[in-house]
Amino acid sequence: MSLLLGHSPKIFIRKPVLVRASSPLQTPPGFVCDEDPCGPDHVELSFAYATSPRNFPKLIKKAPVELLCNDAAVTTIGSSHGWVASLVHDVGTLRLHDDLNPVASDANPKLISLPPLVTLPHCQTQIVTNVSLSSLSPEEEDCVVAVKFLGPQLSFCRPAYQSSSEWFNIKIDNPCFFSSRVMFSKKHNMFRIPGSGGQLIGSWDLCEDKHTPKFQELRYHNLPELSKAERETMHSCLTSEHLVESRSTGETFLVKLFRQTVDGTSLKVKVTKLKTKGVMVFKVDDDGNAVYTQDIGDLAIFLSKSEPFCVRASSFPGVRPNQVYIMDVREVAFFKLTDSSIISYAQRIKAPYFVPPQNIEY
User: Fold this and answer.
1) What is the distance between the alpha carbons of residues 16 and 279, in angstroms, rounded to a whole number?
2) Which one of 44, 54, 100, 328 has the minimum C-beta count within 10 Å?
3) Do residues 47 and 354 lie in contact, with contact meaning Cβ atoms separated by under 8 Å?
4) Distance of alpha carbon 112 from alpha carbon 162, whole angstroms
5) Distance between CA 185 and CA 191 in Å, rounded?
């Protein structure tokens, strides 16, 4: 197992410095809703926003076709803060792109190549669970990229140190984290992973010279009473846990997503789809209390293949408060916490990444 001890301290995250600043003008949460060929190597993207069209204009820009049409050579494996990550299989390297970011330059897109991945013994680096950035941009000096692979490996890298950048690899012992997703908590200044089943949260503090994760055991409160039919439906679903942090309120939520397999056909080929059947949201405090809630106030939560995020709905007219927005490769769904109602659409999404609000610069 690789340890933090003995590795370059350049991987460590510095303690944050709080700066008061005026709120910049931002785009609403959005995603790539459509693409059209515009040459042999590029596609023309159309962006949709979680708000009414009259509140924000439709945007069209270009991107490399490989970011939407995965093949054996290159696969997109996640997104964080509007940066999409791709895995180049033959050389085992990760690249970060801003092409799918609505405010990034169309004429001069940015591409950041990371060092070749190092596979730990009895681990694999071909299947990625997700990617998380500690800062808004990998170009920031203190930004750390975290990559969670399916299985026990968790890897970190500092992109800003390109000449001396290397991967720092951790092998996780507890199997409950093998299929879970990593996120960065600005509140705790740590990378955190919810364990499968939602009983544990593991945290990695890169500010200190430590390699042992901190574990938080969750205690659930105010659980809802479910009917027999509801319990049977939940038990038949695939369950995933997602940690989401509201940076505007400082609250942490654990979202349990229940999805059921549905058979369908696409171009006369049988495919397996997942349809959202239920969502449970728990407010988690620093003592490990996870309180079930149907009221997150003015907040809206966004879950997709990108790192989850949370926004104030009132800051973006058209975004509905107290709601969970869900997007996957074959589904777009909306879950209303107040009455647990779900609206689900079967839709093919080639880039299933919600992009959080982006600062608009003039």
Assistant:
1) 33
2) 54
3) no
4) 9
5) 6
Q: What is the DSSP letter of 229?
A: H
Cα(172)–Cα(36) distance, integer angstroms: 42
The DSSP output letter for 248 is: T
Give the whole-angstrom CA distance, residue 213 versus residue 171: 11
CA distances from 234 to 89, 253, 336 (A): 37, 20, 17
- Which among 303, 283, 293, 278 is positioned nearest to 338, based on CA atoms? 293
* Residue from 170, 147, 172 nearest 158 by CA: 147
Phi, psi of 177 (to 5 degrees): -100, 0
All structural domains of the chain, each given as residue ranges with its CATH number in brackets, are 9-13+28-346 (2.120.10)
3-class SS of residue 9: helix
